[in-house]
Description:
Number of helices: 4
Radius of gyration: 40 Å
Order of helices and strands: HHHH
Largest sheet: none
Shape: flat
Distance between the termini: 94 Å
Strand content: under 5%
Structural class: mainly alpha
Amino acid sequence: MQFASQFLQGSWVEPVGWLSIVAGLALATWTLRQNSRSRVGPALGQLLGRSQAPHSSATDLDNQWQRLTDIVESGIARTEALPNLHARAVEEIEAVDGAVGRLLAELTLPEAAALPPRRELEPETEPLAA
């Protein structure tokens, strides 16, 4: 009784939250019990019945070993190609930087550089006619 009085002293959100959690767990348990017997039963029996992994033949092991060596060799080839790729990327970035510099130089007009700087208009100091 003391637990219920302490529980109900808080807001109504807490009991509703706990009730939702309990209802969700009950629904999940009921759903798993109803639906799992027909589907999971045979699969679970097959998993439990198989005590050992199937033995691989020698040709299958050779095939797996060949695939593994191909993967390792391709990784090594990619690692060896990285410095060349890095050098090409640096060259292309420098080329783009040069092109952007030339483009900016073309966009700055020589006529604009020859013009005198604009003077700000000074306020008129003549007194107003009354």
